# Entry
Amino acid sequence: MLNRFDWLRRSRTGAELLATLHYLESHPGLPPDGEGLGPPPSALNSPCLRCWIYPRATTKPNARYCPTCRAILDEAWQVGELSRHAVVVWGSVNQLPRQLRTGSGPRDSQVLGTYVHDENHFLLMLYHLGIKSWLQELAIYHGADLKGLIQFFPTTGSREIGMGDLLCWMIHQEARFPKDRLRVRFFSASHQIFSARFYEREGVLTFEVTEFLNMLEMASVFRSVLGPEEQEILRKLLHMGDTNEAQFYWGRFLGSLGQEGRDMLNAWKVRQWSKPRINLFYELIEYVEFYQLR
# Structure
């Protein structure tokens, strides 16, 4: 029999994971009362083709799925677009955040789905532009009392690497980190999860929560001060291999910017950043909103 977490691990895509979270929230008991095990696979009959545990629905002829899997797949079609703009959060902490405790008030509008595994583990799906505000709220309400590891990773539409597989990798990696402070791991692409040590050595994967919030704030300011074309020109300049050529174009680029842009880049000393840090910074830009400066 499948428990609630087993249903989450059955998710292949981000849409299925979000649909499963919604289903778990609206159906506290799984499977439905009276639903037993399905028949063993055979040439004439077989269980549900998704979970391979429960019998297929009897309400429709030639049904392929059990009622639970059918309901999850139906909703997955409806939330597919929303899931593409979501990030998944797996937390392993010394105490549940205030937002996840029973009776803590209305849920943040940026939170698309929640699952509390136990007193120290939780799963969230957030709107991708809500990472900063959600982490800020954690820092405000808990301060240094909240310790552990919070991991962000993107959704995927691939059926080769399922969301359940990625979730298991997140759980596997959390054992490496003691609960002596609150750390954040940010994976901008699913393939990074399987090369975590490489990105760890480059210093662009794990951060203390205050450091990560500072990076998100810098990304917001950067996106607000420079336009999309200026951002792309700067990216190309920072990746130039010829130092003399880069110096020549750097002066021309600064001359084309306003005073705010020049002051920002000079204060941050972006030309001294490593290539991996530059790449991470440009990835974070996609996860923050910009300020209305004028």
In short: The first strand starts at residue 86 and ends at 93. Residues 216-285 form one domain. DSSP finds twelve helices and six strands in the chain. The chain has a mean pLDDT of 90.
